[in-house]
């Protein structure tokens, strides 16, 4: 896929320019989006037969799989602050601790496949992780409005959340708005729900 | 009803102590909760026959009605920032401009009757109003977990959003967690949805 729109907060921009591990975290998520391509192609082709014809979960799963398998990220990292109380906030979708000789850097990413309200909750959860010192860089990835038209009904899109990014100015926060490179009625439909997902074992943080 | 729990951010606390109009806005919302009582009683008695047996909308409407009729608040104030694009964010539920000889003070209140994700969106919308200089004090009112058990299924409660209040420290923000003073199986059931609501004309900002 391609990154059609991108928000990098002032705080995140500074961090990425001055901290090699922050830059690496950013690059890895960026790569997971770019390397999410249609099987047998070098880019992502979305079926555009009609509104809402594709599921969004396979798009997310493919990016997460790249982050896990190529870059060693973990899934479902709980925030200590929530004391495992899922009612207060679920785990961070994907998470990685970058460690070098002198440095330690923690990055969390969410890809909200629910509606716009859920995207607000994801955004706030990541901000809590930053504020409580459990994350150093927060990232969110969302389809653009253009792409979301052909994905699951009511899935939140980049443009819907964009008016709220000003709340993130001082938070080290990045939002990626991705889009397909090509639209075609001949492309394979992406299954909805969990149908058609291979029963791959995900790398959960708790089994690390 | 009574105010069982209350969050006043550092910024709001300072404002309420130093600005008479901020104190007045706070007091008016406080009063609308305290004066929301069961007809024929001096306090609020909630039917507790079973889980989710009451609707939450009548609780909200009564508070808003008090704010409108006794204190001159207006309903549905759009934020200029959203350019009337409801997709970006709907209007502020209730709003008042306090004007004295030398001062001008704007306060907005939301009562989120949807699920917890929607409460995050309401919170963020009010924060945007503050950040863009369209509100001077933001308030949110929610039932406590105790009371929400007997209200519409999945309605958000104070305790669910509480872990996120730390994001509001520097924002002039108040959250009220209200509860009934009494629970009784003999109290009248509050209707769900819009059933039983009188077709009262609300004081919309746009018709001011």
Q: Could you explain the architecture of this structure?
A:
Two copies of one chain form a homodimer. With about 210 residues, the first copy, chain A, is of the alpha/beta class. Chain A has a single domain (about 1-205), classed as Restriction Endonuclease. Helix content of chain A is about 30%, strand content about 20%. Chain A has six helices and eight strands, in the order βααβαβββαβααββ. Chain A has helices spanning about 10-20, 20-35, 55-70, 115-130, 145-150, 160, and strands at about 1-10, 45, 75, 90-100, 105-110, 135-145, 175-180, 180-185. The first copy, chain A, has a six-stranded mixed β-sheet with strand order 1-7-6-5-4-3, sandwiched between helices. In chain A, helix 1 crosses helix 2 and helix 2 crosses helix 3. The longest helix of chain A has 16 residues, at about 115-130. The first copy, chain A, is globular. At the A-B interface, helix 4 of A face helix 4 of B.
């Amino acid at each position: 896929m391609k990154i059609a729109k991108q928000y990098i907060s002032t705080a995140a921009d500074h961090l990425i320019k001055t901290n090699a591990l922050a830059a690496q975290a950013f690059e890895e998520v960026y790569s997971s989006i770019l390397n999410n391509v249609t099987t047998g192609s070098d880019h992502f082709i979305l079926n555009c037969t009609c509104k809402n014809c594709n599921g969004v979960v396979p798009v997310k799963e493919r990016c997460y799989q790249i982050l896990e398998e190529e870059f060693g990220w973990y899934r479902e990292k709980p925030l200590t602050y929530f004391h495992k109380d899922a009612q207060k906030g679920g785990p961070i979708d994907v998470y990685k601790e970058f460690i070098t000789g002198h440095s330690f850097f923690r990055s969390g990413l969410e890809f909200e496949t629910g509606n716009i309200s859920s995207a607000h909750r994801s955004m706030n959860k990541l901000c809590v992780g930053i504020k409580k010192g459990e994350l150093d860089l927060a990232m969110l990835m969302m389809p653009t409005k253009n792409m979301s038209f052909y994905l699951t009904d009511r899935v939140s899109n980049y443009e819907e959340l964009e008016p709220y990014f000003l709340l993130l100015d001082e938070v080290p926060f990045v939002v990626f708005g991705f889009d397909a490179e090509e639209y075609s009625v001949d492309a394979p439909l992406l299954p909805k729900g969990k149908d058609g997902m291979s029963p791959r074992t995900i790398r959960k943080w708790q089994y690390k």
